[in-house]
Amino acid sequence: MKQFPLKLVSRRMLAPTVGHYVFQRDDGEPLDYIPGQFVQIHFQYADGTTTKRSYSLATIHDHALGPGEAVEIAVSYVPGGAATALFEGLADGETVQASGPFGRFCLMPADANRRYLLIATGTGVTPYRAMLPQLEQQIRERGIEVVLLFGARTPAELLYGDEFRAFAERVPGFRFVPCFSRELPAQPHADVRHGYVQQFIDEFAPDGAGDIAYLCGNPNMVDACFEALKGYGLPVPQIRREKYVSSK
Length: 248
Ligand SMILES: Cc1cc2nc3c(=O)[nH]c(=O)nc-3n(C[C@H](O)[C@H](O)[C@H](O)COP(=O)(O)OP(=O)(O)OC[C@H]3O[C@@H](n4cnc5c(N)ncnc54)[C@H](O)[C@@H]3O)c2cc1C
Known about the structure:
By secondary structure, this protein is of the alpha/beta class. The protein folds into 2 domains: 4-102, CATH 2.40.30.10; 115-243, Nucleotide-binding domain of ferredoxin-NADP reductase (FNR) module (Rossmann fold, 3-Layer(aba) Sandwich).
């Protein structure tokens, strides 16, 4: 697979240990993608061995992306992590090698469901950020509902929380349900829940006839939600999964 350079344009902290990185593809080619896909970042360990890590594309995808457009990812810093060190040390203007886009964790054109149940923890929410324009279109054109259950430990770790809340206020049919496992906001919105995402699936009465679920992020959460959704009668093809495992 062809590799290409991504040049860091800017970064900001989304949470105490999560950075939002804005890159530009630096070889004059476009990096268009289907929301839900990821890129791979290629680099070397200290001993020179090559390795790679995957990162979901977070850019809100509302038009076909041409050359020079923002390529956004959210990077969760893992203690002792090799890619973590690479990203933490990256200065504006420096480049990393990438390939892609890859993956099939995407909304499917033939979906005829009544509702999407989108479930994430941590940076696993970024594919859903990229999907927002597609989701809005489907809500408008097919009259579907979308529920985003997003698990974080504390309000400070609710990545893009203000964006999702603003989207939910603007787009009837989209419900944003942040689930905090440790600490609640001072004045929680009525849709805020206290606990792990998997504890609140029951509230939405998943149903095999109308629902398609997406699960993204922590592998334990993905497995727990997968089992729970199967228990509600969702056929396996209607439970789409992306586990954030290290590819070393
Ligand atoms: C399809 C796909 C998409 C992904 N998208 C993203 C994304 O958008 N953003 C993102 O931040 N990551 C994402 N990941 C995970 C990412 O690829 C890396 O695995 C992660 O960033 C850790 O890499 P590292 O080199 O810093 O740590 P490593 O050097 O791989 O690991 C260092 C140590 O930390 C442990 N560890 C690894 N990951 C975690 C973790 N999440 N929590 C706790 N301990 C861990 C390892 O077991 C190891 O002991 C994705 C993974 C996949 C497969």
